[in-house]
Design brief:
The structure holds two protein chains of two kinds. By secondary structure, chain A is an all-alpha fold. Chain A is built from 15 helices and no strands. Classes of the chains: A mainly alpha, B mainly alpha.
């Protein structure tokens, strides 16, 4: 990875220069500069690779290429992981020698019917499903493939994290922009809303929303899949990004470039979102990625408690919920797999966030 | 000082009003119909109508809001919809269990975090320091659930050192028999992230000039840490403890659910599953009040810790 450190960053930076050779060399765009710095950070690059692999897996899973059959019971119940070999107890039961049948047809009252039943039974086509003794990473209580479940669970958990983070960031950025840019009465009003939301411990707010979603009309509106939990997390989580964005807008609103934009006739919306927003987007991006990790953890806990994704979906949280009872029976693989998937992704994403923050921090330049 | 407190208390009023409005309208407009929840599936239209009359649901919204405000002010929330237990009784009986678990957790957490944070700050930049940072990053990425599931399985089910779960009416027995495992697990889980956080508190202080001056005049490193740095780091530590305090009253609801501890956190969790609105509303509003009061007390404590702080 470090063999060609600039091969990707250079074309992006020099593209405008080659297209218009007459122009003076431009100072590198903040994102290009950040990308360059990120590439030098070995931990950051490895984290990026891991996160990309996971995101690719999520895409393939959404497209149905992998783990589409996660609900299919392809193995024996609690089929062990392949490395452990088949379950000795189950094998012993299968191999148990059955004593030969004693011929009792002369006293068996049903004997005359057997031939008839056999003929009729032959008309009905049955398929004997061969269930596998072992699965790559084991099977669950009803013989579903834990690997497929983990992939599908990654899809659900990661998508909940991404969408909820996007929603929270969207709400927070919009309200923060309004409050910081306009100030005055609007700012006071939004500060009041902010104080109200932050004075309630966030877990109680989540519980209150979960209760409302459970039995109210909103629950019927957002009954599809991951929508309720995304809305709940987004509605509870916007305060952090609001605080930051508001502070940035207060800093930026009277800067010269904004005044200049005003002078050439840019409206409020244009100044807010096409002039100031790009200049603070790095703050928003870092907050967004912090949210992703936090919301994935929250989703896992809520799904574990049965307040997250619906029953017909699988997430890391529902896997852990099943694993709790399985562990008592000594079936540890589902717990291990769900934990490993989650730990790898969350660690990689957290490291990527750190690297991103370092790369985007203008003070380091 | 008195005028500061008075002003802060006055500032709480609009926020509290906001919380009341938020909770009221959240449940009013987005929640289910209380009469149908109480009536259950078998209730006839007439029964639902009579419940509606009893709860005042047929009155104008403003009158209902007034009923709600009166409930908040008089602590009279009536009965739980699911169990007919009065809500104030639920508070009174569930809170002790929560505090039995949460107070030891908080004390141990803060004590250990100060010790470990200081130790790691003392060896800053060394291999131990980096190892702690890596461990806490990885440890943080594993869900809290996993630690509790595995901890309960290993320490209680397998090794039999503790009961798997349980609770009695005797506080002493709870403390010595049933609380240790939940407390131990919660403290262990929070150890790594807290160490990291407290390390940063101490390191921030160690970069200040007074530390350099103390070193220059030959004060021992230990004395600097315990006398100079620790005292100055109390402000961020205080802030951190204050943000955790409201959580002490709601309890770590996960811990309570796992270990079947009849605390407030578990009660709220159960209430959500039963659509038991009064319990959820009451807990939410009082916890919000408590949070505001704790924030005020924290601000007053800053003065105690650092005499330079001036109230404006």
């Amino acid at each position: 990875m470090s063999a060609t450190p600039d091969s990707l960053a250079v074309p992006a930076a020099s593209a405008p220069a080659t297209a218009r050779p007459a122009e003076l060399p431009r100072s590198p765009n903040v994102w290009v500069a950040a990308w360059k710095r990120l590439r030098r950070d070995r931990v950051g690059v490895s984290a990026l690779v891991v996160v990309s692999v996971f995101l690719l897996m999520v895409l393939l899973s959404v497209a149905g290429v992998v783990a589409g059959n996660w609900q299919k019971e392809i193995g024996e119940p609690f089929a062990p992981p392949t490395v452990m070999g088949p379950d000795a107890v189950v094998q012993a039961e299968v191999k148990k020698i059955h004593p030969p049948n004693v011929d009792i047809s002369d006293i068996d009252p049903l004997a005359p019917y057997y031939a008839e039943w056999k003929r009729r039974a032959a008309d009905i086509k049955t398929v004997v499903e061969v269930r596998r003794d072992t699965l790559p990473l084991g099977g669950d209580r009803i013989g579903r493939d834990v690997l497929a479940k983990a992939i599908k669970g990654s899809q659900v958990s990661i998508l909940v994290g991404l969408f909820a983070a996007a929603l929270a960031t969207l709400i927070g950025t919009f309200l923060g922009a309004l409050a910081g840019y306009f100030g005055g009465k609007l700012d006071d009003a939004l500060e009041w809303v902010y104080n109200v939301f932050t004075s309630v411990p966030y877990i109680l707010l989540i519980f209150a929303l979960a209760a409302v979603f459970k039995s109210g009309p909103l629950g019927k509106m957002f009954s599809e899949g991951i929508a309720p939990i995304v809305v709940i997390l987004g509605a509870v989580g916007w305060t952090g990004v609001y605080r930051l964005v508001r502070a940035e807008y207060i800093k930026h609103r009277s800067r010269e470039y904004v005044r200049a934009a005003e002078a050439i006739g840019a409206g409020h919306l244009s100044r807010m979102f096409s002039h100031i927003l790009p200049n603070i987007s790095h703050v928003v991006l870092v907050q967004l990625s912090l949210y992703v990790v936090a919301f994935i953890k929250a989703e896992v806990i809520l799904s574990f408690l049965g307040m997250g994704v619906p029953l017909d979906m699988v997430s890391w949280g529902t896997m852990l919920a099943e694993a709790q009872t399985e562990l008592v029976l000594g079936k540890w693989w589902q717990l291990a797999v769900a934990t490993a998937f989650m730990a790898v992704f969350v660690t990689a994403f957290a490291l990527l966030t750190d690297a991103l923050r370092d790369a985007l921090d203008p003070k380091l330049r | 000082m008195a005028s500061f407190i008075l002003r802060r208390v006055l500032q709480m009023i609009p926020t509290l009003a906001g919380v009341i409005l938020l909770i009221f309208f959240l449940f009013k407009f987005f929640g289910g119909d209380p009469a149908e929840i109480i009536g259950g599936l078998q209730a006839s239209a007439k029964q639902v109508e009579s419940i509606r009359n009893q709860l005042g649901l047929n009155r104008p919204v403003w009158e209902q809001l007034w009923i709600f405000v009166r409930q908040v002010a008089t602590f009279d929330w009536g009965q739980s919809w699911a169990t007919r237990e009065s809500v104030s009784h639920i508070f009174a009986t569930r809170l002790p269990a929560t505090l039995t678990v949460m107070i030891p957790i908080l004390l141990l957490e803060v004590g250990l975090a100060i010790v470990c944070g200081m130790a790691v700050a003392y060896v800053r930049g060394s291999l131990t320091d980096r190892a702690v940072m890596v461990i806490s990053t990885v440890a943080l990425s594993i869900s809290f659930l996993v630690y509790v599931i595995v901890g309960q399985y290993v320490f209680a089910f397998r090794l039999g050192w503790f009961p798997v779960q349980g609770w009695t009416n005797s506080t002493l027995q709870n403390l010595v028999q049933y609380a240790p495992l939940p407390v131990l697990l919660a403290v262990l889980v929070s150890l790594a992230p807290n160490t990291r956080l407290y390390r940063s508190f101490f390191l921030d202080e160690m970069g200040h000039d007074y530390v350099r001056t103390a070193r220059a005049k030959g004060v021992q490193e230990k004395t600097i840490l315990f006398k100079h740095v620790l005292r100055n780091a109390l402000i961020p530590i205080l802030t951190n403890v204050a943000t955790q305090l409201p959580g002490v009253f709601i309890g770590s609801f996960l811990i309570e659910v796992f270990f079947s501890i009849p605390g407030l956190g578990r009660e709220v969790y159960v209430a959500v599953n039963r659509s038991d609105y009064p319990v959820i509303q009451a807990v939410t509003i009082y916890l919000a009040v408590l949070t505001m009061v704790i924030n005020l007390i924290t601000d007053l404590m800053y003065k105690l810790v650092d005499p330079r702080v001036v109230f404006k």
